[in-house]
Specification:
107 residues, mainly alpha, 43% helix, 0% strand, flat
C-alpha cells in the first residue's frame, strides 16, 4: 500500500467538498416550517402541506391517489397489509437494513 489510510494521516478517498451534512436544511425549508407554525396547523390529515404533497406525488406518478405516512415503517406495514401478507407468509428482505423494516414484517 503506497499511502497510509486517511485515519492515519493519508489522503482521504472522498474529497472534502463532496461531503455534506444531512439533513440538508435550506432556507426555503425553514421558511416552510415557520409558515406552518405561524398558521398553528401542526397536525391533521387535511393540512395544506400534506394534501398538497399527496396530490403532487399522485400527479407525478400518474396515479389517482398517494398517501403520506409519518414513517417508512408505517408505509411498509401498510404495503404488506395491502399486499395481503399474513402470519406465516414468507417475506424476503435484506439483512442489511433499518430495524423498522423487520418490525413491520413481524407485526
Amino acid at each position: 500500500m503506497k499511502d497510509a489510510l486517511a485515519i492515519h494521516g493519508g489522503t482521504p478517498s472522498v474529497p472534502q467538498g463532496l461531503k455534506r451534512l444531512w439533513p440538508d436544511i435550506r432556507p426555503e425549508d425553514k421558511a416552510a416550517v415557520l409558515n406552518v407554525l405561524d398558521r398553528g396547523e401542526l397536525t391533521g390529515v387535511n393540512g395544506v402541506e400534506a394534501t398538497s404533497l399527496e396530490r403532487e406525488w399522485a400527479a407525478r406518478l400518474g396515479v389517482a391517489h398517494a398517501v403520506l405516512y409519518n414513517t417508512g415503517t408505517a408505509a411498509i406495514h401498510s404495503a404488506l397489509y395491502a399486499a395481503g401478507v399474513q402470519a406465516g407468509d414468507e417475506v424476503i428482505t435484506t439483512a442489511f437494513t433499518f430495524w423498522g423494516r423487520f418490525q413491520a414484517i413481524l407485526h
